[in-house]
Amino acid sequence: MPYVMVHIPKPPSAASPVPRSVPTSADVARLAGVSRATVSYVLNNTSAVRISEPTRRRVHEAAKELGYVPHAAARSLRAGHSRMVLMPAPAIAMGPLYGQFINELQWALSRLDYTVVQYGTVGLRGDEAARAWAELRPVAVLVPDAELGPEGVAVLKRAGARGVVTFGPERVEGAHALLMDHDAVGHCAGRHLYARGRRRIGVVVPAETGLETYSRPRLEGVRQALRGTDARVTGVPLAYTEQSAAELAARWPELGIDAVFAYNDEYAMLLMRALQDAGVRIPEDTAVLGADDLMLGRLLRPRLSTIHIDLPSGRELAELVDRVVRDPGAEPETHRVLGASVVQRESS
Amino acid sequence: MPYVMVHIPKPPSAASPVPRSVPTSADVARLAGVSRATVSYVLNNTSAVRISEPTRRRVHEAAKELGYVPHAAARSLRAGHSRMVLMPAPAIAMGPLYGQFINELQWALSRLDYTVVQYGTVGLRGDEAARAWAELRPVAVLVPDAELGPEGVAVLKRAGARGVVTFGPERVEGAHALLMDHDAVGHCAGRHLYARGRRRIGVVVPAETGLETYSRPRLEGVRQALRGTDARVTGVPLAYTEQSAAELAARWPELGIDAVFAYNDEYAMLLMRALQDAGVRIPEDTAVLGADDLMLGRLLRPRLSTIHIDLPSGRELAELVDRVVRDPGAEPETHRVLGASVVQRESS
DNA sequence: TTGAAAGCGTTACCAC
DNA sequence: GTGGTAACGCTTTCAA
Lengths: 348, 348
Fold this sequence. Notes:
The structure is a homodimer.
Chain A: E1 6-8, H1 25-32, H2 36-43, H3 53-66, H4 72-79, E2 84-88, H5 95-111, E3 115-119, H6 127-134, E4 140-144, H7 150-158, E5 163-168, E6 176-179, H8 183-195, E7 200-206, H9 212-226, E8 232-238, H10 242-250, H11 252-255, E9 259-261, H12 265-277, E10 287-291, E11 305-310, H13 314-326, E12 334-336, E13 339-343
Parallel strand pairs in A: 2-3, 2-4, 4-5, 5-6, 6-12, 7-8, 7-9, 9-10, 10-11
Antiparallel strand pairs in A: 11-13
Helix pairs in contact in A: 1-2, 1-3, 5-13, 6-7, 8-9, 10-12
The first copy, chain A, binds a DNA duplex through helix 2 and helix 4.
Domain HTH lacI-type (chains A, B): 23-79
GO molecular function (chains A, B): DNA binding
Organism (chains A, B): Streptomyces sp. 900105755
């Protein structure tokens, strides 16, 4: 992005305030004429101790006047634990499905009084990343299985994490697992295309790195669904560019494929357009099937068939995390959470 | 999402390890037979002090054996500051453009040795949110201007934030600003449609809440571009559903609109399809213009014209943050960072 | 009802 | 070169 920042002179404004140092509870105590303990009692509404109303007011006023804000690090240091649930910020934008999932989850965890923090880990691999997360002493960690090994789980637990929950296609030793076996997506796709009479089935494998975790099991799922039948399955690499799609479409006749499961709706839209431009009729010559059930697929002509993916609700997941935190000794559980179903429209 | 988690019994695994307490540097010192200070020197590679090689080795081995991980809260408490840059996790999934922007930014800030944390603030409004952020004592905060008022800026600064940078269409008193005036996007769109000979111009305003911050200035920009001309500008509400689009398309003739700027490419695709289904010819009867320059727009027929939006690179932004942190006394600066240019294809 | 003091895990200063 | 010690900001027990 070659865009250059243009500096605009700041309009005259109020004089910058004197850079006071950060007010502490001691400052509040001093201003209110009470002890630090009293300040703590008042601001935390400690029920075990009864503070007179005038004192409460004085403390609150002092806190407000100073703009006092408690220091989270000091607090959790003293308490010996935090309510922080850590999850890695996704390295690649993973589409609206994942985004909504995250939002729901954050909301549900907030309701349970947890604080969700997405930690950007760039360049750190495996155990390095686990160590960086452990430094924050989160009470729970929610992480794609691809980013954490068994040693990573151990590091986090030793650092006091009461819950480690992974999600993705595989289990990780020692952690609770939300098993999203994308095999099921592929399996569903394979069965559908076979049922529609297709026998030479292509499966798009994105060329972009970072997606193998999902694309490989999806391909495997198709293979598995068609094992023992007369159908043939072919992996088809495709980058998310018009050029790549055009090149693939040009080779289409020689591939001899009569149906393609295109990883997701976006790749499906890209490929479908390229095939149409190359004169391939859809679905007569080749059926096209996407995944994710995006709204946009419905707008194409022919309308895009897709695999609808059911993710667990944020509320369920939050409750799982909470349960794990409350009973850290429990055996790691494995939950199968990914539902897949065909939405047949016109492209298959 | 009605999907129900299926519990799968855990396979037999290694006995769960004894729940030791979290190892501290004191434990490492004890095991290595040195003092806590020495441990600190060794693990932090303090250059001011020279430690014998055998001692170093003993410390490293002890740390490894115990699985010692330093406690970030304790460290920053002692240090009096952190390297944490805080940004709110977006409440609504904001498309691939924003996602890539965030990723680039995280990467660039990591290069400068900052730690990026996305803090999920659900339900907290304005100053409440600012206070929650302030508790973490971040060294810098990067936040959409819509989520922070001047008082919020003051709270954060009093809590020790050396840099507060807002981005979005408006400035916030006391903070550095990345002025993304979406007026420019609308302006660009208005000029283009006018130049194409259109005179009765509709501007889609998403019905979804949370987007007003962007949709309002875009509409204003179109108005502004066409002020004093013979063109007429009409705001057109549209929800992101097929039904809403169909209803709008049915009313299209009575609206008497010959060109529409559709907020972004996704709304444009939705509307364009509905118009086509209703028999409106594009671009002959009505021109359609999107924004964001998504790949998918190129796949439509007619190909979707769009406004390409140039965001600042993550590197530039990271450098701005770094500069602000290093010189917190500087006057707040305002940078104009949003470039808009027409990409004309076939729909306009 | 309030105050004094200990301690959470680290690091930096100053003696040894 | 290495080890004690104080201090960061907060909560909580105990004593007054």
